[in-house]
Amino acid sequence: MSDEKANWKEDHINALKESLAFFSNKEKLNREKWTVKRLLRALAIDFREEELTGAEEPVDVSFRDARFQEKEILDEDRRRTDEYKKALKKAEAANNYSELLELYDPIDISFSEVVQKCYDYARTLLLQSKYGPLECKNIDLICYFNLANHHVVPPVDVLNEKIGFRSLSVVSNRYCAVAYAAKNAPKILRDNVGKAKEYFEL
After folding, report:
1. Which domains, ranges and CATH numbers included, belong to the chain?
2. Residue 69 in contact with residue 59, Cβ under 8 Å?
3. Which residues face 171 on adjacent strands?
4. Which residues have CB under 8 Å from 88's CB, separation 6+?
5. What distance in Å separates the CA atoms of residue 63 and residue 123, rounded to the nearest whole number?
6. Long-range contacts of range 43-48, CB-CB < 8 Å, 24 or more positions apart?
7. Which of 183, 181, 202, 201 is nearest to 192 (CA)?
8. Residues 25-34 pLDDT 10s
9. Which residues contact 35 (CB under 8 A, 6 or more apart)?
10. pTM: predicted TM-score of the whole model, two decimal places
11. Taking the mean position of all CA atoms in its chain, how far away is CA 42?
């Protein structure tokens, strides 16, 4: 194996180890903050890292007057830690550069459909939630859509429909949006309702 490919393998292994660490229990708050930051950056809202803080249940992340509860939408029975462990084992055993490559054949899903799925998920949460309607009306729900092998594409029309939470924001691997915000929701969310924004890594 050439030095270039050997270095690529080493970098790949290190990246997998970092991902495993990121998805550990002790990094839960940082994952929740990551989702909120992704939304804020997509909406071009300036912020300082110290403005995002952990909060008591049912809130995960506080940002100014926003009270975010973060939920990740994953495939049923999907375990990302197991995925990364399997990928790491494969990478460490690889002898050829080609063994580290995997076929990626994503399924296109419109951002409009993603938003609809997040509304459906939010309604399920309201039915199953251990918190009452009054508590939920003071929660800014933020959903990170992360189904495996899905690539988010246009159309990006955002359904704006009243839901039992104070607001509903949607984050995907390409677009972000505030789908709904009640009158008492933070202004930064109310001002951005219905505006799907494409996310660019800074």
Report:
1. 3-198 (3.40.1540.10)
2. yes
3. 144, 176
4. 13, 16, 17, 20
5. 24
6. 43/176, 43/178, 43/188, 43/192, 43/195, 43/197, 44/197, 45/188
7. 181
8. 788 999 999 9
9. 70, 72, 142, 144, 171
10. 0.83
11. 12
